[in-house]
Amino acid sequence: MAPPAQSQRSQSPSQPSGKSEVSDLKLQLRQLAGSRAPGVDDSKRELFKKVISYMTIGIDVSSLFGEMVMCSATSDIVLKKMCYLYVGNYAKVNPDLALLTINFLQRDCHDEDPMIRGLALRSLCSLRVANLVEYLVGPLGSGLKDSNSYVRTVAVVGVLKLYHISASTCVDADFPSTLKHLMLNDPDTQIVANCLSALEEIWSAEASTSEEAAREREALISKPFIYYLLNRIKEFSEWAQCLVLELVTKYVPSDSSEIFDIMNLLEDRLQHANGAVVLATVKVFLQLTLSMTDVHQQVYERIKAPLLTLVSSGSPEQSYAVLSHLHLLVLRAPYVFSSDYKHFYCQYNEPSYVKRLKLEMLTAVANESNTYEIVTELCEYAANVDIPIARESIRAVGKIALQQYDVNAIVDRLLQFLEMEKDYVTAEALVLVKDLLRKYPQWSHDCIAVVGNISSKNVQEPKAKAALIWMLGEYSQDMQDAPYILESLVENWDEEHSAEVRLHLLTAVMKCFFKRPPETQSALGAALAAGIGDFHQDVHDRALFYYRILRYNVSVAEQVVNPPKQAVSVFADTQSSEIKDRIFDEFNSLSVLYQKPSYMFTDKEHRGPLEFADELGNLSIGEAAHNVISSQRVEENDKDLLLTTAEKEETRGSSNNGSVYAVPYDSSTSVFASQTQIESAISNPTTAGHSQHASFGIDDLLGLGMPAVPDVASPPQLKLNTKAALDPNAFQQKWRQLPVALSQELSLSPQGVASLTVPQALLRHMQSHSIHCIASGGQSPNFKFFFFAQKYEEPSNYLVECIINTTSAKAQVKIKADDQSTSQAFSSLFELALSKFGTP
Length: 840
Description:
Layout: H1 19-33, H2 40-56, H3 65-70, H4 77-91, H5 95-108, H6 114-125, H7 134-144, H8 149-165, H9 167-172, H10 175-185, H11 189-206, H12 211-219, H13 223-231, H14 238-248, H15 256-266, H16 275-288, H17 293-313, H18 316-332, H19 334-337, H20 352-365, H21 371-381, H22 387-401, H23 407-418, H24 423-439, H25 444-451, H26 462-474, H27 482-491, H28 499-515, H29 517-532, H30 537-552, H31 554-561, H32 577-585, H33 590-594, H34 599-602, E1 611-612, H35 614-621, H36 624-627, H37 638-641, H38 645-651, H39 675-683, H40 692-702, H41 728-737, E2 742-747, H42 750-755, H43 760-767, E3 772-779, E4 782-790, E5 797-805, E6 810-817, H44 823-835
Antiparallel strand pairs: 1-3, 2-6, 3-4, 4-5, 5-6
Helix pairs in contact: 1-2, 2-4, 4-6, 5-6, 6-7, 6-8, 7-8, 8-11, 10-11, 11-12, 11-14, 14-16, 16-17, 17-18, 18-20, 20-22, 21-22, 22-23, 22-24, 23-24, 24-26, 26-28, 27-28, 27-29, 28-29, 28-30, 29-30, 30-31, 30-39
């Protein structure tokens, strides 16, 4: 056969030129099938390598099945392995072809070479074809009694595979009893471990329907069997030791002497070089002593040194895994690790994920004796070239300050951060100073002196700007330029994209008005006018609330907005104690690394694999027309917004603008104003003995009088197509081509965060607002969605990337549009729809 002509560009051996290449392989394999010529095995190897490489890159070579089986009649173990790999790959897809393999696999199960016997038995059990289970029983029975330990090891795993293919066949053949006999009598510890793993899985599955299986499962954690395994634990491999130790955690000792016996038997496992064995042993010690408080604390002292050694001696990945478990222990017993805080200092060559975890641990172990050293170290990290680590270190300093340890020195350090000429350092420090002032109001004089020198133009991050505005409103009597800074911010209202900042600005201007009325009068009027005309539902509602309560009674408004406040004693914890206990119960598992119980990342309702929402796309064209609820928008003009509820009812009935925006709000209102008063102020500000003329006095004072209402541009009317459709490929192409029109951070309501346990709920909700999902993915706490919408009766598309973090209740939104001029209007629609998610 003449070789093909060489092209100018040589073909890769793993890339066939076409079907002819597979046909050539088939012909060559057939020629070699019955050949006994010298060197034929070498030729077969080259052909087998080609077949396997084609199969690996996804080329269909199932047509070679018969030839591959015929060529398997050889004693070359390498050829056997490649043939078994090929057969296992195509047998499940082509059950009819799998029948061709039974004879030669059964024949190989009786080969003289134990390696071939084991490989053949493994391949036979890996076919996973239901109608071939009858052919597995005989070879498995022989394999379990084989004289070679490798064959027995493979046979034990094969029994478990058979159980998953046909549980009744496995149980009827009495394989569980055979495994139990091997587990108790086989001299090979690897076989004992395999039997234990297989029996645990089989009996756990059978326990719900079989009392005998339930008894056998309980027998696995009986005292004789547990001691049998513990006495042989040094003979087991590292994987098998972890398996045995996990079983020991389920055993309940009868008395304290038995607990000490087990701990003495496992004492040397704490010195093991393998981190998994050490963590499994630590879990046993902690679980056994939970009911013995004094001994439990001694266990913390005992396990501390081995864990710290693992952190410093292993790879970054191992260090992170061990540090995650240490972090959990530090949260439960911080005083035990307080003297070892230097082990948690960051090294320059450590990955950022390790550094971040160490910063959390430094925060947790800080106390009166080590605060100065820890804060000094953290301040060094603030100048780190890794900006996220620098931010985390500043937050860590603030957390330590809120723990009431050496506040004087820490406040000085935070104020030094404010003077650093780095935007991200200033931003983080402002947020922390705000929290610090809420807990330690006595430091307001020193802090405000430094904060007053910061220009609001240099603060761009929404959280930092909101913190600065809060301080300007709360301490406006101590900051000479506070009214004028707030006035300049109000003048630039339209340039502020963050609803959180606009909400804080409304409240701050109100507070400043009560403390310095003449200087804030015009700013308050402009803020209320802008707020009432704002696109965001909650900004609109708050401005309208402030306006109406001012018209009702200025003194009541002051009691509501600016009451005397008590210092915050404790800030809310992000994780409940119940969740932390649940994670501790799942010690030595992924739950500790993810810092969440296993059900939150294993249950289907908590998972969100990235998938295109084809069913939603189809729904949007067909049946959605009956289910879609049109997006409701505020369509009131300025004069209508300034009317009371009673006045509205006379013309067109009352409207309901429910607010779901979750922002910090002063909770001490009820001390000074009753609920009845506030409801009256909202619903009818001109009643309760106050004349219409008196209420118009406030309008005139703020420049909001009814005769001359300031003109605020009404929101542009944008109507979306309820039956929009967009091909996923077209979406991807547009996403790559279009520039980002808007990028903003939005907030979710607590009800919306709770509803996100099922991400499909958000897709249905947004679809009801004519905003359709084309792809979604992620898992708690981070979800990612791609939405699209289309302008009504126009071929204009809006594309949205929305990344939601349920922990912070924030959504990062990027909007791209064919028509850039309507991006802001669509952004308002999207923001309104998202704010209503989770509400009834």
